[in-house]
Design brief:
The protein is mainly α and about 110 residues long. Helix 2 runs antiparallel to helix 3. The chain is globular and about 40 Å long.
Length: about 110
């Protein structure tokens, strides 16, 4: 879906993928998906250098329960599918180091 939105930055594409596959999105309505589309476009612009959008993005994702603190405030909890004997994360880490990508973004041409 991110391709259909016209986003071009890897960060925005990853943002869409992460949120569209999140436990929060399992019960989303059409209006929630519309908000994700708008926010993904804002994230794309952020990664292109429009840093003033960071606060707006943070406010939007907080309403979806982006952090542990947000989820506690919203009284959200998710059952964890744990396998007996599992000693680590079951998800594949992102292919791109987000810290490195952000560092490059903030230091590129500034």
């Amino acid at each position: 879906m991110a391709k259909g939105l016209g986003v071009t930055t890897p960060g925005a594409k990853r943002f869409w993928k992460t949120w569209s596959e999140s436990p929060q999105s399992a019960d989303w309505l059409e209006t929630d998906w519309a908000e994700l589309e708008i926010t993904t476009l804002l994230v794309d612009q952020l990664y292109k250098g429009d840093y003033k959008l960071a606060g707006e993005i943070r406010q939007r994702v907080a309403k979806w329960g982006a952090t542990n603190e947000d989820r506690a405030r919203l009284r959200m909890s998710f059952k964890k599918d744990s396998e007996e004997g599992s000693d680590g994360p079951t998800e594949t880490p992102p292919e791109v180091d987000m810290d490195e990508e952000l560092y490059k973004l903030l230091n590129d041409g500034s």
